[in-house]
Structures are given as structure tokens and as C-alpha cells.
């Protein structure tokens, strides 16, 4: 797509070091943008004496890298996108597209009952939603709501747990043929309305109650629309490798592309075992499987305190969980599963209360717990850790979020190097002290793992954050700096880019990312958030 020399572009970025997202070598170039698209790329224009594109605005990018906007393959911004016009948590990182509807639980498709229940179930991820006008019920209506204008673009996964909740409630049993047919129809409707795939949360109720035969049938529907399956599988602790293999086999049997989300190996039982996982994936890829994965560049995980509970205690939904917790005999059974047996909610590993840090509460009265481990709070109260955890679960009505310090740096780096790896923050912006990955994932990749540690080259890292996610999402005009592509672009300083967010200050914004554009419009300009809301819903590309 050539720009007429007499025609002014909306923007010309001059003398940028272009890392185009392909993984190939960078080049120095002028890049011209008009009407939200890249219209011209002139390499080494100044040195070659070429005619240079002219623009209404011309930006000197000397010393800056220009690359495609980053794609967050695992985000929990389902409500933040609707209620937060600024959303600097992602915009300031250079994220131009988030994939939401993760871990099998989100806010569409629902009816009034299911909406109320899912709001309760994931309060710890997104807040109560009392400040949100839930005008939608279907996937299409949710995407239409995003189309009114949001901070960054968003794609949606049909959440399998929400679908099951809508059809079957919170029962731990096999679906009847009629129920399975209805779930198939709901998944098909979601795909037809623009979802890019389906997610599951197989350690979260009620999605965890689905047997593999049920999941396989739903994956067949997803595959028929060209989508992919993104499971939070049944264990990241004891039995993690078996759980990975289970998902690989299930997706192969369904003929469905597989994206392994937050593909970690956590807890002491998995220290140093990344090579076993990667061998499993290499074997499946060599046999023709279509597999990708995402990770965040940190060792601790993040979830809700209620998520650690055994699945039998979660059957029936939030109110039933609370009744079980206040009953002394039932609470003792829960404690035994957590501390002795290893509950399935805690990935089959007995909980270590020294590793469970409270990061957020729904009730501000409980704020003193934040920033302390459960054991530390228990010692201050002179009581057993389970007594403290139980008290907090009940008083906060299951709305408590936690950090779990159970990861291993060698596993993080090994998985990060794999050729099917992409980036995902798994970022929860809710809570007083959220995981810093919500604000820091993408600059941390560039600053720590590229510049400081050399785990990845700059070109390779950018490809993992841009074109490879775009390929998984089947987006024909995003993820590369190419003429004709959408001008979703990031300019950063490779010498200074870094995550500002830390565990002590998790909402600090990154450094070294002065410019971010979506559809050719600046959402970050000279390091400051503009009032532009250029984001929209990104719907599945029809086959």
C-alpha cells in the first residue's frame, strides 16, 4: 500500500527501530499511518535519500523501538473494560488487545439467576459489579457493550463454567443428553456472536464438575467455528503433568486447537520439571497437534481464597459454601482436606499457609489482613491458620483474593523459551494489593527477561507478544508492522523499559513506554494517558 507523495499521512513515525513482530531482524524505518492503518514503511529513508512520507504529525523516534501492540492472551478485565475509561493497567504497558472470558467464568451468556451467581462467584476477580450496569445477557450483547468504546481492544472466550451454571446450576454430576444439547447450543451461539473460543476453569466450580466427555463435545462445537480451547486444567500441582496430557488428548480427540493458559508448574512437587512438560508438548506437536500456551513472567500465582476449597465443599454455590463453613463439623472436614489430604481446589497439594498472602478483600473493614500471609495473621490473633482463613472466608463472603508464592524461576524461564509460547498477564486488577503482573507483565518481559537476563532476544520476545497471539486468534490484520495492517503500535526505549509494579507497589506504571496507539490514535502520548477510548470488541474471523 503506497502513500501518494502529495498525500499527508495522519502520522509519520521517523527513524524508528522497527521490530515488526515476525521474529526477524529489526530495521530502521519511517512508518506512516492514515485512517487507522499502516500505509507506508520506508526503510533507511534518511540514509538512502529516499522521498520520505509526510504527516500531519511527525514523531521523531530516534532511539525508540516501534513494534505491534502487545496482545494479552489471559486477562481478567471483563468488568474493568466497561467501568474504567482509563484502564492504564494495560494501556500503559502497550497492551492493545486483551482476551477476556477466562478460566471458565465470566458474565455472558447468562440469565438473571446465573448473572447474580457468577457475580458472587468471581467477586474476588472483578469486584461486586455494583458500579456496573449489566445491560447484556448474551455474548453478542456483551461485545456490543464493548463497542461503545473501551481503553483497549478485547476478544472474548465463551466461559464453559458459566454455560454449565446457566444450564445445570452448581451440581456435581454428569449432564443429561438434553442438558448437553443446550450447552452445545449456548457455545455455538457464543461463537456465532463473535467469541474466539472457549475457556474452562477445571479447579473452579461449577466448571470443574464437567467430565471429559462433556468437555469434548463442547470443544467439537468450538472447532467447527474455527475457535480454540483454553483450559485452566485440573491441576498445576500434584498430577500437573497428567492434567496437561489430559487436555492435550481431549483437544486432539475433539479436533480442536488448544491454548494452555498460564502454563506453569507450581508447588514443590514440580520444581525443575519443566523439561518433562515441554517434552510432552513437543511429542504432541510432532504428531500434528495445534498447541500454543501463555505464561506470565513471575513465580507467585494469584486467585481467590475460596478457590482453595475442595470441590465437594463448593457444590451448590456460594451460599451453600458459606453454610458449610459456619458448620463446625463440615468446616473440620474442609480443614482436613486442605491441610492434610491436599484439596483439588489447591491442586492436590496440602496448603502451606506461609505461602498464602492476602492481596484483597471485598469488605474494607477486613483491610488489616492485606499484605500478610494467613499464618502471619493467625499468629497475630493467636489462633490456628485455618481458623483465620475460615473467619476471613465467612466475614468477606468469599470475596478475598490471594497471592500464592509457590512457583519456580527455572520452570518459568524454561517454558518461556518454548517455540509455542505467548504472553499473558492473568492480571486481576481488583483488590488493594493485586499481583504486579496486572500492571507489569509486558515491560517485565522486555526489561528483565530480554535486556537484563537475555532469556529471549528482543525480536523473538516481541513476536511472542504480538504476531503469535494474533495467529492463534486468527486475526488477519494485527500483530505485525505491515502495510495495510491496523496501526496498533507501541514505541518503547529498549534501554529503559521496565515494569514499575512491584509486590510492595503493585499499581506503579511502567517506564520506557512513551507512546501507544490503537487504530492510529494515541492512547499513551509522551508517557501520559490520553482520553482516547479507541478499543472495541474484536470478533472471531469467519472461516
Automatic annotation (TrEMBL):
Q: Which Gene3D superfamilies match?
A: Metal-dependent hydrolases (3.20.20.140)
Q: What is this protein called?
A: D-aminoacylase
Q: What is the lineage of its organism?
A: Bacteria, Bacillati, Actinomycetota, Actinomycetes, Kitasatosporales
The molecular function terms of the Gene Ontology recorded here are: hydrolase activity, acting on carbon-nitrogen (but not peptide) bonds, in cyclic amides
Q: Which GO terms describe its cellular component?
A: cytosol
Ranges for domain Amidohydrolase come to 58-524
Amino acid at each position: 500500500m503506497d502513500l501518494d507523495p502529495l498525500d499527508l499521512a495522519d502520522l509519520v513515525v521517523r527513524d524508528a527501530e522497527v521490530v515488526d513482530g515476525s521474529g526477524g531482524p529489526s530495521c530502521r524505518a519511517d512508518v506512516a499511518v492514515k485512517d487507522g492503518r499502516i500505509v507506508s514503511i520506508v526503510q533507511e529513508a534518511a540514509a538512502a535519500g529516499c522521498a520520505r512520507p509526510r504527516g500531519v504529525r511527525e514523531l521523531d523516534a530516534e532511539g525508540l523501538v516501534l513494534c505491534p501492540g502487545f496482545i494479552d492472551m489471559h486477562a481478567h478485565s471483563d468488568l474493568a473494560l466497561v467501568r474504567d475509561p482509563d484502564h492504564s493497567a494495560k494501556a500503559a504497558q502497550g497492551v492493545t488487545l486483551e482476551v477476556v472470558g477466562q478460566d471458565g467464568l465470566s458474565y455472558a451468556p447468562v440469565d438473571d439467576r446465573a448473572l447474580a451467581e457468577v457475580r458472587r462467584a468471581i467477586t474476588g476477580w472483578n469486584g461486586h459489579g455494583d458500579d456496573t450496569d449489566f445491560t447484556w445477557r448474551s455474548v453478542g450483547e456483551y461485545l456490543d457493550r464493548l463497542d461503545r468504546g473501551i481503553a483497549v481492544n478485547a476478544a472474548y472466550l465463551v466461559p464453559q463454567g458459566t454455560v454449565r451454571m446457566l444450564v445445570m446450576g452448581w451440581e456435581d454430576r454428569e449432564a443429561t443428553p438434553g442438558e448437553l444439547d443446550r450447552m452445545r447450543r449456548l457455545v455455538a451461539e457464543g461463537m456465532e456472536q463473535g467469541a474466539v473460543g472457549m475457556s474452562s476453569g477445571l479447579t473452579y466450580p461449577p466448571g470443574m464438575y464437567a467430565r471429559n466427555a462433556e468437555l469434548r463435545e463442547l470443544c467439537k462445537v468450538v472447532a467447527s467455528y474455527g475457535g480454540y480451547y483454553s483450559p485452566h486444567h485440573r491441576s498445576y500441582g500434584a498430577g500437573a503433568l497428567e492434567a496437561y496430557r489430559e487436555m492435550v488428548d481431549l483437544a486432539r480427540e475433539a479436533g480442536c486447537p488448544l491454548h494452555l493458559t498460564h502454563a506453569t508448574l507450581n508447588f514443590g512437587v514440580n520444581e525443575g520439571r519443566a523439561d518433562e512438560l515441554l517434552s510432552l508438548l513437543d511429542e504432541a506437536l510432532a504428531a500434528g497437534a495445534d498447541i500454543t500456551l501463555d505464561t506470565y513472567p513471575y513465580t507467585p500465582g494469584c486467585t481467590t481464597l475460596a478457590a482453595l476449597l475442595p470441590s465437594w465443599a463448593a457444590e451448590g454455590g456460594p451460599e451453600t459454601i458459606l453454610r458449610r463453613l459456619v458448620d463446625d463439623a463440615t468446616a473440620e472436614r474442609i480443614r482436613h482436606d486442605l491441610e492434610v489430604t491436599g484439596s483439588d481446589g489447591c491442586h492436590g497439594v496440602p496448603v502451606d499457609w506461609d505461602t498464602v498472602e492476602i492481596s484483597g478483600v471485598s469488605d474494607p473493614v477486613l483491610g488489616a489482613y492485606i499484605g500478610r500471609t494467613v499464618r502471619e495473621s493467625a499468629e497475630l490473633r493467636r489462633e490456628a491458620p485455618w481458623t483465620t482463613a475460615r473467619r476471613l472466608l465467612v466475614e468477606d463472603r468469599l470475596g478475598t483474593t490471594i497471592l500464592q508464592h509457590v512457583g519456580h524461576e527455572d520452570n518459568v524461564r524454561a517454558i518461556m523459551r518454548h517455540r509455542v509460547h505467548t504472553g499473558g498477564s492473568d492480571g486481576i486488577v481488583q483488590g488493594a494489593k493485586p499481583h504486579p503482573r496486572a500492571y507489569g507483565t509486558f515491560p517485565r518481559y522486555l526489561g528483565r527477561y530480554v535486556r537484563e537476563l537475555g532469556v529471549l532476544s528482543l525480536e523473538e520476545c516481541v513476536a511472542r507478544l504480538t504476531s503469535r497471539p494474533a495467529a492463534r486468534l486468527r486475526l488477519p490484520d494485527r500483530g505485525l508492522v505491515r502495510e495495510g495492517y491496523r496501526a496498533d503500535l507501541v514505541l518503547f526505549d529498549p534501554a529503559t523499559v521496565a515494569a514499575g509494579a512491584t509486590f510492595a507497589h503493585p499499581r506503579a506504571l511502567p517506564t520506557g513506554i512513551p507512546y501507544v496507539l490503537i487504530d492510529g490514535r494515541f492512547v499513551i502520548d509522551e508517557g501520559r494517558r490520553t482520553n482516547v477510548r479507541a478499543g472495541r470488541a474484536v470478533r472471531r474471523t469467519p472461516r
